[in-house]
């Protein structure tokens, strides 16, 4: 492999799960777990794939290594003796894992291995750990059991265990020790690439540090390339060279770790970084709150998929509101559209300490505002008038009118425009419409 040739190229990878209904089992939609991600890993490099639970990062891992078949896209693996291959006449690539037959796939899995999140569930409790690790050697043709044992015993020592542990069983080991055994199993075939899916998330913090240090040492010793998947930006910072930030099936930012942490460009990246604990007890500044949960991949938001939770969601040029109030308005609009406002419950809560006669529509509207963290009065007169009209409809149990009022008035370019990547230099790219010239001009005008 040439120095300029990545060991792994992922091009527009997709994994969609069909949704079928009815007696005829017709396909009526799809859950887009992975929806067109692209990145590459260079020889000896560690690339992180980070995001919350439900963002699709683990599905990306299993699709890359072909534990499940991707829906579309390419996974070009240039490890082993595959380097320097050119595309076929029909445009396909001979090193595309998604097109490998059984023989090619078996060879690929000798050269690319995976470490799983829960080491306990990946071992057979009735099989000694030595046999579990050596099983891979037997599957790939090594019949000499004495040689297999010697290789495994050596690996157990390299990962910080003892050769005598070969004959012990999984229940005799701690979580950190099991993950070390998982590392040994991943290394036993001497692969070029390892995909590690949340390898330390189930471990105590002190054990996490030990395992991360071990992974780093083994990477140097064996010359490995690594795809490291995690939800923790702190872990990513400690071990990765580059990082791709993933949200709802898409990569929203990618770049070198140092640059991305110094100058994050996507609001989602900012919010993930804000969750890293600050060890300085004197710093009492509040981080950015990541509200809500990841939307369903079966019905993702339009435009930028993150706009429903974004603290920097772009404001319509018709209004002049504080950013926090604007975000709260859009969150409230979403809840109203799914009838997520329980007026009866709000009325019952309002009765605490009040008589029935005191519960006027004005009181109920005030309680709704409190329930959804809306200001008692919006600073923009027209916005306040629209919100008050919508609240009247909600109190009257007319959610259809309230939804129409809010959705027709409180709109954002973020739900109308699908963001494209902006290049910030040195491979640092992000997908956010705030980097578009017209949006930047609009925000500057609003600040004046």
TrEMBL record:
Listed InterPro entries: AAA+_ATPase (IPR003593), ABC_transp_ATP-bind (IPR050319), ABC_transporter-like_ATP-bd (IPR003439), ABC_transporter-like_CS (IPR017871), Oligopep_ABC_C (IPR013563), P-loop_NTPase (IPR027417)
GO molecular-function terms, A-Z: ATP binding; ATP hydrolysis activity
Gene3D superfamilies assigned to the protein according to its UniProt record, in alphabetical order: P-loop containing nucleotide triphosphate hydrolases
Domain ABC transporter: from-to ranges: 8-273
UniProt key word Transport: yes
Keyword terms, alphabetized: ATP-binding, Nucleotide-binding, Transport
Disordered as annotated region, ranges: 273-303
SUPFAM superfamilies for this protein: P-loop containing nucleoside triphosphate hydrolases (SSF52540)
Family designation: Belongs to the ABC transporter superfamily.
Record's protein name: Peptide/nickel transport system ATP-binding protein
Organism: Halovenus aranensis
